[in-house]
Amino acid sequence: METQTLPKVDLADVFQSQQRKALQLKKSTAQERIVRLLKFKEAVIANIDNVYEALYKDYKKPKEEASETDSVIVEIDFVTDHLETWINPKAVPTPEDLGGEASVSRIILEPKGVCLFLTPWNYPFLLTLRPLVSCLAAGNTVIIKPSELTPHSSKLIKEIIESVFPKDEVFVMEGGADVASELLDLPFNHIFYTGGTRVGKIVMKAAANHMASVTMELGGKCPSIIDDSADFADAAGKIVWTKFFNCGQTCITTDYVLVSEDRKDEFITHLKGTIEHMYGVDGPGIESSKYARLVNNNHYQRVKRLLDDALENGASLVTGGKTNDGENYISPTLLDDVDPDLAIMKEEIFGPLLPVLTYKTLEDAIDFVNKREQPLGLYVYSKDKVAADKVISSTTAGGSVINHSSVHYMSPYLPFGGVGNSGIGRGNGYFGFLDFSNQRPVLEMP
Fold first, then answer.
1. Known catalytic residue: 115?
2. Order of strands, edge to edge, in the sheet holding 90-92?
3. CA angle at residue 97 from 91 to 101, to 5 degrees?
4. Close Cβ partners of 238 (under 8 Å, ≥ 6 residues apart)
5. What is the torsion angle, in degrees rounded to the nearest 10, for the CA atoms of residue 301, residue 307, residue 313 and residue 316?
6. Sheet harboring 353-359: ordered strands across?
7. Do the Cβ atoms of 123 and 246 come closer than 8 Å?
């Protein structure tokens, strides 16, 4: 894509207009917010084909993997169905020494004010528009800076937003790190950031300057632990599907597999067979329009270095390993005999490489996970409920699934987010609404 010259925007002026508007929106009713969200839904539906086109232009994301708007529409429907209930003040008991039944205690959920969204490139529509639903339902104003790495998607996000919202309610500012830096100098009330931990720390420091609250949806190395009682064919199918979807560029996908030493070869046979059945013995190939690419050459080179380093230091290539610099293409790749001290096991892969490691006992697998940063997701495949519960109760993660990977994100009834290095705060449904709200206690005494 040719370099785009963006019009000069006075961000301070936009911010001040949103501060004024935020005071008005604070008084808005649930029904008024619902009307805006339903208009937003209409605009999203009207642009579904444009979303497919933008994602393919940005990194050849196939239509079969580009249905990001489906979850946005589901989220709008869920939120608009429940907002009338959520927005009502919550009555709570009052202690006797504060008046007991003669007093009235309630919790009011009020908007935080002006919010900043710094959103990622790997699912640009899903990870921008879905949390935006929660933010608007809570009554906030928002400035959004989508990723410059997916310019066609960012441009379309701006067009969709501008077709629905005036800029004093929601404003999209395209640009790179310089724009993000300028925005972070402004005194936002809340910052929502999705991306890596390194930049997340920069965002948190900027937020601290203005005592802004933050939601951080970060990444990490998400394990899938395979217990000996698991259905190996089922586990392999689910791990392969979620791992290589979007060319491995998913923050909650399986980053590595842990399987018992005694069953490793059996499970690798299932993984290899599944990969080759889904993508072909030689991979999908650089001509394929059904397989996404790494988003740009920098990311491609980073992932390729992880692969090369692993192979040069004793890892075995089970299947895959095909690369093409001009296409930012790496085929779905399965690795065995991976040393835990290699770079591929120390940083989030965020690409189509799947290392398989082993453990002697389930306790060893738990210990392996606990010695590392707490992951955004942790997945257990087991038919033994006691074993599965033991893994869940003995570890900490942002979220977990038993007998699947990653799919917890899709439920509006479950909170989504990380812990420690993998994130702060929670999104989805009521939990997202709470995250963008100030829970204000009010005690009324006689």
1. no
2. 90-92, 104-111, 437-444
3. 40
4. 381, 403, 404, 405
5. -160
6. 316-319, 333-336, 353-359, 256-260, 223-226, 377-381, 399-402
7. yes
CB 133 within 8 A of CB 76: yes
CA distance readout (Å), 223 to 53, 75, 216, 314, 370: 33, 27, 20, 21, 11
Q: How far out from the chain centre does Cα 224 lie? A: 18
pLDDT truncated to tens, each residue of the chain (446 aa)?
444 555 678 999 999 999 999 999 999 999 999 999 999 999 999 999 999 999 999 999 999 999 999 999 999 999 999 999 999 999 999 999 998 899 999 999 999 999 999 999 999 999 999 999 999 999 999 999 999 999 999 999 999 999 999 999 999 999 999 999 999 999 999 999 999 999 999 999 999 999 999 999 998 899 999 999 999 999 999 999 999 999 999 999 999 999 999 999 999 999 999 999 999 999 999 999 999 999 999 999 999 999 999 999 999 999 999 999 999 999 999 999 999 999 999 999 999 999 999 999 999 999 999 999 999 999 999 999 999 999 999 999 999 999 999 999 999 999 999 999 999 999 999 999 999 999 999 999 99
Q: Which of these, 283, 265, 271, lies nearest to 320 by C-alpha position?
A: 283
Annotation says 217 is catalytic: yes
Q: Provide the token pair at 227.
A: 């217990």
Which residue matches tokens 């994130």? 423
**DSSP result, 343-391:** GGGTS---SSEEEEEEESSHHHHHHHHHTSPPPSEEEEE-S-HHHHHHH
Instruction: Determine which one of 169, 174, 217, 348 is catalytic.
Output: 217
Could you tell me the two tokens for 183?
A: 């925005």
What single-letter amino acid sits at 97? D
Cα angle for residues 12, 13, 14 (degrees, 5° grid)? 90
Residue given tokens 């082993």 in the structure block: 358
Out of 135, 174, 251, 348, pick the active-site residue.
251
pTM here? 0.94
